[in-house]
Amino acid sequence: MSKQTFTTGQVLTAAQMTSLQQTALGGGSTTAKTASYVLVAADAGTVVQMNSAGATTITVNTALFAAGDTVQIQNVGAGVCTVTAGTATVNTSATLALKQYDSGDLYFNTTSAAFFFSTDAADSTSPLTTKGDLYGYSTLDARIPIGTNNQVLTADSAQALGLKWATPTAVASGLTFISRTSFSSVATQAVDGVFTSTYDNYLLIFEDMTAATGADDFYLQLRYAGPTTETGTYYGWCETYDLAGTESGLGWSTPNAAVISTSTGSGVNTGNGHMLVQRVGNSSEKAAMTGQYTENETLSGFTIFGGAVNTARTYTGFLLKSSSTNITGVVTVYGYAKS
Amino acid sequence: MATQNPNIGIYDYTTGETLVREMNPEELTDYEAGLQATAKAEADKVKIQADKAALLAKLGITADEAKLLLS
Q1: CATH number of the domain that A228 lies in?
Q2: What is the ipTM of this complex?
Q3: Closest residue of B to A257, CA-based?
Q4: Band of residue A127 on the pLDDT scale cut at 50, 70, 90
Q5: For a disulfide at A195, which of A8, A247, A280, A328, Cβ 3.0-4.6 Å?
Q6: Are residues A194 and A69 in the same domain?
């Protein structure tokens, strides 16, 4: 029932009590409307239900309602029903445009100022549309579209939603993975573009190296300007100790390559080792290479090597090969941070 | 029938591309020059070993005796 002013001694009927109960439970008598409507004082404590296929308004004017009065507004029609401030003010955190089956309570804080507490379904409607979307917020709910692979979510106050997907920057210190290349039965294997100005020193890891003829020497030559292999002189030495402790050596200048081992490895007796590459990123320096290598169980045993290329230039990559046959294996490149 | 050149594997970090193809003429020249240099060095090494063995035989001493002589 609408809001009543009871008097002393008044006797309520059962119907009135039932209606009051309904109102107390959030329901109450409903005034059905099919066209735009201006609220009247008798609407206090009732439900105004709009049912129109077209757009409508419900206008709120001042001096009709007392402080504390409420009017529940529902829209069951297909047309949008907009709660409109007439001479009164209407404040809300949500929209005043009610879609079909939206509703809200108009609460009068004073006779001329009302708050609209919306139960608008739009408030709980997800803005997410795409796999991986996140739920964000600016001044209202919005989606944060998924980023690309390997990006991380980053706070950024310049973004509308305060967040963005971004590629993580390289760590300022430590060893950074650059590339890992597997190759199988090739005469030579080039790895280009891995030496850049980002790092001064690089670590190469050789894993499971084999040559068609396992006792072949294992060589590395530097590359520059993309695809060009440095075939000039290399000065250095590869010293090998076999399983009996007998040592033998091979200079770098004959093959014009850094000799990593006098035995590459074969079968299950693969070769494994590492090389520190330095001074590759400076056009006025001669790159230096040092390292160790072991060819498992047979043939060479253990190798240490070191030397430099005799031509100063900016090197960008390297090429692996054996002294005569195809090679198979894996090489991984890491960069040492400058600071 | 055309002879197939040896294969070169190339990984390019800047493009992320990996390919295996026949060596081009320039790459083949570099590769074969390396093979020849290595073969020559190996042949030289074998010749030196043979010369040493011949000298030891001529002197009638063993390699350990020759080391002792030079120590």
Answers
A1: 2.60.120
A2: 0.77
A3: B34
A4: confident
A5: A280
A6: no
Best to test chain A binding among B30, B46, B64 (most A CBs inside 10 Å):
B30
Pick from A190, A323, A324: CB nearest B9: A190
In this predicted model, what pLDDT tens digit does every residue of B1-31 receive, in sequence order? 567 899 999 999 999 999 999 999 999 999 9
Q: How far apart are CA A97 and CA A69, in angstroms?
A: 21
Contact A331/A317 with Cβ under 8 angstroms?
no
The total number of structural domains that make up chain A: 2
In a domain, A149, yes or no: no
- The beta-carbon neighbor of A255 closest among B23, B27, B37 is B37
Residue A288 resides in a domain: yes
**Sign, CA torsion A64/A65/A67/A73:** negative
pTM for this model (two decimals): 0.58
CB A267 within 8 Å of CB A276: no
Q: Which domain holds residue A32?
A: 15-121
For chain B, the structural domain boundaries read 7-70
Q: Is B13 within 8 Å of A317 when comparing Cβ atoms?
A: yes
Same domain for A198 and A93?
Answer: no
Burial zone of B61 (CB within 10 Å; 0-12 exposed, 13-18 middle, 19+ buried): middle
- Tell me what pLDDT residue A300 has: 60
> pLDDT band for position A45 (50/70/90)?
confident
